[in-house]
Design brief:
Layout (H helix, E strand, L loop, with lengths): L2 H10 L4 E4 L6 H7 L5 E4 L2 H9 L5 E3 L20 E6 L4 H13 L4 E4 L3 H4 L2 H4 L4 E4 L5 H9 L1 E6 L22 H8 L4 E4 L4 H4 L6 E3 L2 H11 L3 H18 L2 H15 L5
């Protein structure tokens, strides 16, 4: 951080806030930049409770959001079509689940993100049911993939991933921002359960699973239920527009910062 700028902000009594967008996976780094004076936002409920346990009073839980102008409903496009979609980095838990689906179903599976190709066993890479796009894609292209998948799998990053910086093993309890991106596209997703999930959604707006076997059971249940998937996904989209856009997050930040704004008084 720019130390002279911080000193200037302190002298002018302008409220200064920081939004910790990698909690709790990089919480070791977060602990180095927060203090008891500035306003702290964290995207994760587990991290929020952890900071509270350390005595921080100036801490607020504020999840990430989405841009509904990018992540929106689009016309069908055969080039991006799939039965089951994983989009993102191939964390071990995602890789395990993708392999499990490949070995136990015959649905068309698409994996999008840098690194998938080298991590899928060769015998499975030859499968006609598998398509791998081994590259990062833009948000606009991600939106196309979400729109054209029957089911998007949203498996979260595990807390013990090798490259995390979370030596205290603070548990992640909140959904990732991809959750909101998918819903904003009116796409149907299956998501692994998080403690804060049903604080952000109603139970009729999103469907969770607790383990790989339950995930496959729910894939089998929903994949042929086009109308039901569309109904659930539309309710989720309505929730996003009402509650989880970037605009709503900025307004929340402004409302909170105003409470600290002695500069204008």
């Amino acid at each position: 951080m720019n130390q002279p700028l911080l000193e200037f902000v302190k002298q002018t009594q302008i409220p200064f806030c920081i939004w910790l967008t990698e909690d709790p996976f990089y919480i070791d780094s977060s602990l180095k930049v927060i203090d008891g004076e500035n306003i702290i936002f964290t995207i994760d409920l587990g991290a929020f409770k952890f900071y509270q346990s350390l005595g921080y009073k100036n801490i607020y839980y504020l999840p990430l959001g989405t841009n509904p102008k990018i992540f929106q409903k689009k016309e069908p496009n055969e080039s991006y079509k799939s039965d089951i979609l994983f989009l993102g980095y191939p964390y071990p838990s995602r890789l395990e689940l993708a392999n499990f689906i490949l070995r136990n179903t015959d649905y068309q599976l698409t994996l999008v993100g840098k690194g998938w190709n080298n991590r899928i066993p060769k015998i499975l890479r030859r499968s006609k049911q598998l398509s791998i796009i081994d590259e990062w894609v833009s948000p606009a292209v991600a939106s196309l993939f979400y729109n054209n998948a029957k089911i998007v799998i949203n498996q979260h990053r595990e807390i013990n991933f090798l490259h995390n910086q979370n030596s205290l093993h603070v548990e992640s309890k909140s959904v990732n921002n991809r959750t909101f991106d998918i819903s904003s596209c009116s796409a149907f997703q299956l998501i692994d359960y998080k403690e804060d999930l049903y604080n952000q959604y109603s139970e009729d707006e999103i469907v969770h699973y607790n383990n790989p076997s339950e995930c496959i059971n729910k894939i089998n249940r929903f994949i042929y239920e086009d109308d039901l998937r569309r109904c659930i996904a539309q309710k989720a989209r309505n929730r996003i527009i009402f509650q989880h856009t970037w605009e709503s997050r900025v307004l929340s930040i402004i409302d909170i910062v105003k409470k600290y704004n002695t500069f204008s008084k």
